[in-house]
# Entry
Amino acid sequence: MAASHSQNPIIKGYVLPGLIQPLLTPDANPGYRKVRNAFEQVRAEIENTDADLILIYSTLWPSILGHQIQALPEPEWTLVEEEFHDLGSVPYKLRIDSEFAECYNKHALQRGLQSRTIAYHGFPIDSGSIVALQLINPNNRLPAVIVSSNIYADRAETVVLAKAAVSALKEQGKRAVAVIISTLSNRLHTNYIDPKDDCINSLKDQEWNLKILEFLEKGRLEDVAQLSRQIHREARVKKVSNFKPFWWLSSVMGAHNRYTGKVFEYQPIYGTGCAVVGLTPAPHASRDLEFDEDAPEHYTGERNVLSASGESMADFSSQQVLCNTDDEGIEQ
Amino acid sequence: MATTSKKNTGKGAIVAGCLAPHPPHLVYAENPPQNEPRSECGWETLRWAYESMRNDLSQIEHDVLVIFSPHWRTYVGTHILATPHLKSLSVDPIFPNLFRYHYDINVDVDLANTIHDVCQSKNIPTKLMTNPDFRVDYGTIVTGHLTNPKWDKPIVTLSTNCVASYYNLDRMQALMMELGAATKEAIEKSGKKAILLASHSLSHRHFTVENEIPEDMSKEHITNHSLYLWDMKMIKLMKEGRSREMIDLIPDFTEQTIAESDSGGLTWMMKAMDFPTYPAKVHGYGTVIGTGNAVAHWAPPTTTKPQPLAEKGI
# Structure
């Protein structure tokens, strides 16, 4: 069993796209059908694990007041996607592990994050989470928990958010598969296309997608995470402050490259790069690089680097020298 | 009851345009029966501003409200609400504790189709939204409620085509100029009198935490002074009738204040109104979780009824 290589309660990790075509119009393009089939392979793979829940971080659920965690036990609604509403409606009823959601929130708060659970009838659960759960967990065999992507968060908060999930799993003695809902490149076509003519929006996006997939196929999850800022600059429409899902996935699974990667499928959907990828903890790393980004355990807030005095920076280790050397040669 | 069709009896016109922000907090503070959460009070300056604007709009004959909403975000063209009747529950994705609103909305499908047709003729990508299960975005609902709480006029909503994040603010400006001109042409063709509502705030840097009592006004203020200065700059231009200059500043203003004008609503509306040189009436300004919000309207002098002397306080 994969978990024997690690004490981490995450059994497997998946990268899944959130666009609605594989669910509603899989036969509009042969590539959509291939992505749909890949989702079904993931479903079969998850069914062969002893996971207790599916833990989702969705880039299609933006939040502002910190992170939000879905906690309504059985949310039920009919989804209509705001961009592709002409493709149809998706009635759904999900099973959420509310106890885990509360525990996850508790650990997030303990680690200094701003977070809260959400449990309201009619809350607009994001389309990506619904697509994924309909396809990989069609009968709610496993309960799920969904966490939002805070648009203002950057790496430190996202890393700590992932560690809070691991702490919660350990406290409850549960094992999970971790899922990020995200495209690779996210550039949609900006005009209406015949689905038969779908292609990746630009050659540059295509090259970046292939690079990311090359890393993931070799199990180099942390390497991809470390490239997140560059991926954001090169292959993403900048809707949020940074490209965060691989920070979360890497931290929740373990920030290293000791994985077996499997690219189930990679296809364009309305111009975006949609890959279905699986990662399983493995005994040996394909390659271990020297990572240059830190792995904080607690979130201690924003560094007020514009502060006139050093007082508000004094709690940060990187600022202590500066704060203590006001009289030691720093030009006034 | 609002109607969704009206015979074309002559040249339609834009009879007013409003900057009508959509913080759900304002509906929460009003405690209308449609909204589930209850509040004690809050954000009175903005709610009174809306009250003042409603009073003015009630003096202007109109058939339909056309709302430009930043919370229906589309990347493939501009989408147009075109289902005759929509009834459901809207839960705010960011503030579900404040806004769970049961809406019942009539849509002017004829006008929606006309806007779509005119846009198509000009190669502006648009799509009609005809799925009856579609949930109307909360920007439309909040702006619609605060402008017309009786919902006795049909609406048309235009989505925000996110060209500002996809390309840049200059590209957004160019597209919104085209969309504004097309909207004006469509309204004129329709024979209807329309009020335009640009549903957005000015500066838009939120607090990242919420107070234990959301309506605790002792905690409400602009996020920072530079945002306030920019908001005042824009409002000054509104009050002085310098709308073209205001729109020319939108890219800088938006970049500096993370403003919701990145949606293009204000640019769309000012272009559709041929860049008014008469002053806007600014009904009020206030902050909501740190963002700057102005409630204002422009009414062409030809469409404003002269007020009775008593109402002028004479």
Notes: Residues 1-5, 316-332 of chain A have pLDDT under 50 and may be disordered. Chain A has ten helices and ten strands. The beta strands of chain A are 10-16, 53-63, 67-70, 76-79, 90-93, 115-118, 144-150, 176-181, 259-269, 272-281. The interface with chain B takes residues 61-66, 78, 80, 82-83, 85-86, 88-89, 114, 118, 120-124, 152, 187-192, 237-239, 270 of chain A (CB under 8 Å).
